[in-house]
Amino acid sequence: MAEDNEINAMITVEILSQKGMQIDVAENGQLAVERFASQPPGTYAMILMDVQMPVMDGRAATRAIRTLNRPDAVLSYAIRLCEAIRPHPLVELGISPRDVSALVRMARACAVLRERNYVVPEDVQNVYTGVCAHRLVLRPQARVDGVGARELLEGILMQMRPEAGAER
After folding, report:
1. What's the pLDDT score for residue 163?
2. Which of 3, 87, 100, 168 has the most CB atoms within 10 Å of its CB?
3. d(CA 43, CA 16)
């Protein structure tokens, strides 16, 4: 968690600790980025980020984390792709968390087929429409408009590029 206000940090740590979570507190965004980058992938299940902090604010820290060349940074890209389709006016039911997991597994398989032991954003892009198209439930208006799930997902791919620096 990145939080510069000591009282807010104490309260949040207390509440989350009662739920069985272990919390690592960074006093600013720069420290949060450094701690995340120094730990092995998968160390952190989530990062809670205050927006207004000294040294580096939460938005800049989030952008910096997304640009790290790590598997869990690529996971962030996969999640953003799947979240982006949910508010579309032609979508009744979007991509679920379980569907995101399937997308990541297929991206890993894509990486293996390319003889790599790591996933890059291109792997996610290559399997996104194939994995997610049949999982979307579109509104009847989509059929009237002649729009299919693949077209919607391809539009999201064009809008949601990986953060700069996330590509290998």
Report:
1. 61
2. 3
3. 17
Burial class (CB in 10 A: 0-12, 13-18, 19+), 84: middle
The Cα-based distances of 152 to 15, 76, 89, 94, 101 in angstroms read 40, 20, 11, 11, 20
Of residues 82, 69, 91, the one with CA closest to residue 142: 91
Q: How many CB atoms lie within 10 A of CB 28?
A: 19
pLDDT averaged over 10-residue windows placed end to end, the chain, 168 residues = 91 90 90 89 80 88 79 78 91 90 91 85 92 93 94 91 54
CA atoms of 156 and 141, how far apart (whole Å)? 19
**Residues contacting residue 86 through CB under 8 Å, at least 6 positions apart:** 94, 95
